[in-house]
């Protein structure tokens, strides 16, 4: 089983209001190296595969037509740039992998290729790239990009990945760097070539600036859930995040993803599919329930609304309560209808219903359906079910609460998984890169490698 | 006296061919954290102000019409992204400052503002930004930008700095972050505002993504030598790099820079002007001469040509030897004529002359004119002269050879400067930020701060 732990370099990662938890260390720690170093060391001691950083550019200002709710509740703002944390965290650890979200919409591919080659060098091959196209509603306000419709964004991202792969895999031959002092040859010029690309979106005619790094191409993560996003994942991704509503119903989603990858000419073993879920643990039933109560009490309704409205792109404060929600959802929000329908199939959701559903702090039913909640034994049981029934390869865990939840994963959950023989008790020393951690030592047949 | 040490995350920083030096550690070390950590710790033990990273985007391909010479001689290629080194180096040190080159042409201002706020948080206020506009000849081939004429680049950079300053200084009030758990207020929304800018080059209408960092605005470094570059420095820079040909003739340049800053409404104390020079030390006259011989022997003519042609934008291999050099220089290369004229005023430089001048490895006259060369006593004498006669505030030192040259600066030169009372023997604990290191503890009246 593979375990990623997800975080974000913000005061209250993922859970709005939880910076108020008495054991919180994120509210001020998120902008310090010492905080993240101790998180990374803790995860490494538990043999976790990778620490994964979500990221965002800009400040969500949908709810109430302003950024006030996001700012007040620290919904992804303030947020430092997580890419800058990775080399220091790698220096503080030896085996833990790191993956970071980096947008194809806000950085030129030549720059992206250099950033990840640098990260791969400085982490000794322990880096992954979570490809996002960004929803781009914030692109205009930040001046970072221009709005592009959803599917077209993925067309652009396809071309983007083509360019960066070429820079990583085809520009420098293995052994190009000679260090031949006698002949005054540092690098053999015949073994380095310009990548020449002239496409719809990008033009490059230059050699890559970095010599080959341990992995060359970072491990490619992706989480697109739309049909076009799934196609993108099937084509490019190695680690895919899914959010299955149940183990049983999720089996078909997992099988379809693997099938789609095969349709794109990739092997049956090409994907590692990780179920993304919050995890809230207690040593006993009673402690778990107490913590659930505390979680509910500390959640910020305003923060939850800022998050949901920003995510979906609809201001729930701007429409009469009885407006059917389906009428006001934008292109990117359509999938939300399905999500709500699955939560209450018989209900004709209105704006008021949705607002109450999002903002009501006490939603105990959520703790068993959408969260890995309970004692380590109960949570391990559910994880086993996801592996066996849905066929996932592991989990992307969202620690809840953000700070002490990391300790709980390492101190309570991992030992239970290890006891059951479901999770490693030590890193395999033969697996020296993050790709080998996922696919086994010596694994080299990742996408793009064959181009050499 | 202020001392910066300049390097670059490349195998042979600044000196082409010197990766072949027997004591070299850069050729493979440049892409590892451990190498840079040991460099930073060494500089911190010597109480140096800051480690400064030059940078470049792309691969120079002017000489011979291809990248072959640059690649062969490792002239700034391979090159990792130095920005990614800083948080880890700050974690490995406590007082040393760090400055990094970051181009206004290749990154959006909103992104730049976030990167430097992140760096300033993670380094506890020890970061500086060397503003470059990039020469942009490589912009087309890398797809990172489009060519803009020299002076217009600076107009654009003026606007760029205006935008990032506004994000750093005006978007978040001091005390905006409340951590008020009882009121469920992380940040007071009334104390955070969008920066609204619609200019010729940039449009932004968003709040800064980061809460105020220790320095807010990083220390601004600049090195523009052209008239337009000098105006830019006078307007924005706090630390200015100059390359004076002699202490005596440099006095007027230094005085003019300070005058220009005052003309822009800044105080007489607004600039720290650092003379940039290579330094090659020996314990004795004889050792210094031996090392000069060795330096000359290890210099790569091909690398020097790749560097010079890339820098000036002219392919010396593409013109008959008797072509007058002034005829083929581009806009950016005009200043070179003055430089060559100062080296040999009576000579009518041809392409062949220049090529021989650049590529001839044995140029002993260079060691006294353009280099701080000799015993620690001799070098300290010359540095004193620059401070007293030219009026500079310190130096930006280019260690030669790149690896052992750092040791020589720390072990031979700094002790001599300390013995003379010219350089600190310990960091002043009251100076907690890099800005305070340059301008004194409590100094807060930097550009932009008054905007709050």
UniProtKB/TrEMBL annotation, chains A, B:
Can you give the residue ranges of the Luciferase-like domain?
25-389
Q: Which UniProt keywords apply?
A: Flavoprotein, FMN, Monooxygenase, Oxidoreductase
What Pfam families does its record include? Bac_luciferase
Lineage top rank: taxon: Bacteria
Residue ranges annotated as transmembrane are none
Xref: PANTHER family: ALKANESULFONATE MONOOXYGENASE-RELATED, C2H2 FINGER DOMAIN TRANSCRIPTION FACTOR (EUROFUNG)-RELATED
- State the similarity comment: Belongs to the NtaA/SnaA/DszA monooxygenase family.
Stated name of the protein:
LLM class flavin-dependent oxidoreductase
């Amino acid at each position: 089983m593979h375990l990623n732990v997800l975080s974000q370099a913000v005061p209250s990662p993922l859970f709005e209001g939880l910076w108020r938890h008495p054991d919180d260390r994120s509210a001020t720690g998120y902008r310090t190296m010492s905080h993240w170093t101790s998180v990374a060391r803790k995860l490494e001691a538990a043999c976790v595969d990778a620490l994964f950083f979500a990221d965002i550019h800009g400040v969500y200002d949908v709810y109430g037509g302003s950024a006030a709710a996001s700012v007040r509740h620290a919904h992804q703002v303030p947020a430092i740039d997580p890419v800058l944390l990775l080399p220091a965290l790698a220096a503080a650890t030896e085996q833990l992998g790191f993956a970071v979200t980096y947008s194809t919409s806000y950085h030129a591919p030549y720059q992206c290729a250099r950033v990840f080659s640098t990260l791969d060098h400085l982490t000794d091959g322990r880096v992954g790239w979570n490809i996002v196209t960004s929803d781009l509603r914030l692109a205009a306000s930040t001046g970072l990009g221009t709005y592009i419709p959803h599917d077209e964004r993925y067309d652009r991202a396809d071309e983007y990945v083509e360019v960066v792969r070429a820079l990583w895999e085809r520009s420098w031959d293995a052994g190009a760097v000679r260090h031949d002092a006698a002949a005054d040859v540092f690098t053999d010029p015949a073994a380095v070539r310009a990548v020449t690309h002239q496409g719809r979106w990008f033009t490059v005619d230059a050699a890559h600036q970095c010599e080959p790094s341990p992995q060359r191409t970072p491990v490619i993560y992706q989480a697109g859930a739309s049909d076009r996003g799934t196609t993108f994942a099937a084509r490019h991704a190695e680690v895919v995040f899914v959010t299955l509503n149940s183990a049983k119903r999720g089996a078909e989603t997992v099988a379809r993803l693997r099938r789609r990858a095969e349709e794109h000419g990739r092997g049956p073993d090409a994907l590692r599919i990780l179920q993304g879920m919050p995890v809230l643990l207690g040593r006993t039933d009673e402690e778990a329930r107490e913590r659930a109560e505390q979680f509910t009490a500390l959640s910020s309704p305003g923060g939850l609304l800022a998050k949901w409205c920003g995510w979906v792109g609809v201001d729930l404060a701007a429409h009469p309560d009885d407006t059917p929600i389906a009428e006001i959802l934008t292109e990117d929000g359509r999938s939300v209808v399905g999500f709500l329908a699955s939560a209450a199939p018989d209900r004709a959701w209105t704006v008021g219903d949705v607002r109450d559903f999002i903002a009501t702090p006490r939603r105990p039913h959520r703790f068993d359906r959408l969260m890995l909640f309970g004692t380590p034994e109960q949570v391990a049981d559910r994880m086993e079910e996801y592996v066996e029934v849905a066929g996932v390869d592991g989990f992307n865990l969202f620690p809840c609460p953000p700070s002490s939840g990391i300790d709980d994963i390492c101190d309570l959950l991992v030992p239970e998984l290890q006891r059951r023989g479901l999770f490693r008790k030590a890193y395999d020393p033969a697996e020296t890169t993050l790709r080998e951690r996922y696919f086994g030592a010596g694994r080299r047949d990742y996408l793009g490698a064959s181009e050499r």
